[in-house]
Amino acid sequence: MSSEQITVEVLAAMSGSVGTRAGEILSAVIRHAHDLAREVRLQRGELLAAADFLRRCGEISDEARHEYILLSDVLGLTMVVDTESADVGDGALETSVLGPFYREGAPWEPAGANISRGHGDGETARIHGRVLDITGAPVSDAVLDVWGTNGSGLYENVDPAQPDYNLRGRFRSGPDGRYALWTVKPVSYPIPDDGPVGDLLAVTGRHNMRPAHFHVIASALGYRTVVTELYTDDDRYLASDAVFGVKPSLVVHYNRVTDPEALEAGGRREPYWDLEYDFVLTRGNAAAVGFSTGRQPAATAPASR
């Protein structure tokens, strides 16, 4: 019996799922996986090594870390799925990766609130602008669920030294579509490389750095939910993001505010970074994210990264 005959038999065994979405996906997985094995002449030991790699991904995952999502990110699969499934009109907000560190249930904050709740979180930044539809009309009561790392490149759910939900918050746009918040200027940081995904990066000669970015889930009633990131334009890793999330329309510029009159108008004494950005949404159905991490207990949290 040839390997091609085996593929035919396996697909025939899937006939009970014909016409279903599960059947469509699984049949395609079988065809492509079998073709891959034939193309590279996959050996038994290599198949077992792949199975062991996946086992290790499961073993290292916990409430605050999801190695399989990280794997999907570094293989570029996440961005392929996001880009293929996004229905984005010209000028509308584009998607980027959710990442493995999103945590649902961030506190609701009033306009202009500061989500930097820790000590020494980083350089102060103000992010503000409008939520608009594709015609430029304001979208009121839109929700911006935002999060980021501190100046050390750590998310609060993997860093017990930070307050609960530090640098996370949910904001609503006003009647004129305007929003505003205070946080810290993003920094580049390494994704975890102490597990199987790190081994994959090493064997392929890749670095594990992500360019500085600010996470946003933008949603509103009657509009498509957009999971995205805003990337800082002065970051050295923009052209080599470990998870391929950068899109030109998502690269933004932070201005340094130092003028005394401008500082006084903003109610600040010390210089800060300022980003003005409009989120443009398209009509459609809002959708739940469907994934969230938890907060890692202090006893098991990593000492660094």
**β-sheet strand percentage:** 15-25%
Please write the string of helix (H) and strand (E) elements: HHHHHEEEEEHEEEEEHEE
Class of secondary structure makeup: alpha/beta
Report the uncertain regions: 301-305
What number is the mean pLDDT? 94
Number of helices: 7
The biggest sheet, with number of strands, parallel, antiparallel or mixed sense and barrel status, is: 5 strands, mixed
Number of strands: 12
- Terminal CA distance: 51 Å
**Percent in helix:** 25-40%
Shape from CA axes? globular
State Rg. Answer: 22 Å
Summarize the structure.
The chain is an alpha/beta fold and 305 residues long.
Provide structural commentary:
The protein is an alpha/beta fold and 305 residues long. The chain contains seven helices and twelve strands. Strands 1, 4, 10, 11 and 12 form a five-stranded mixed β-sheet that branches. It has a five-stranded mixed β-sheet with strand order 3-2-7-8-9, with no helix packed on it. Strands 5-6 form a two-stranded antiparallel sheet. Strand 7 and strand 8 form a beta hairpin. Helix 1 packs antiparallel against helix 2.
Features:
305 residues, alpha/beta, 5-stranded mixed β-sheet, 26% helix, globular
What is the topological layout?
Blueprint: H1 3-13, H2 21-40, H3 44-60, H4 67-74, H5 77-85, E1 124-133, E2 143-147, E3 168-172, E4 178-184, E5 189-190, H6 196-203, E6 209-210, E7 213-219, E8 226-232, E9 251-252, E10 255-257, H7 260-265, E11 272-276, E12 279-281
Parallel strand pairs: 1-11, 1-12, 8-9
Antiparallel strand pairs: 1-4, 2-3, 2-7, 5-6, 7-8, 10-11
Helix pairs in contact: 1-2
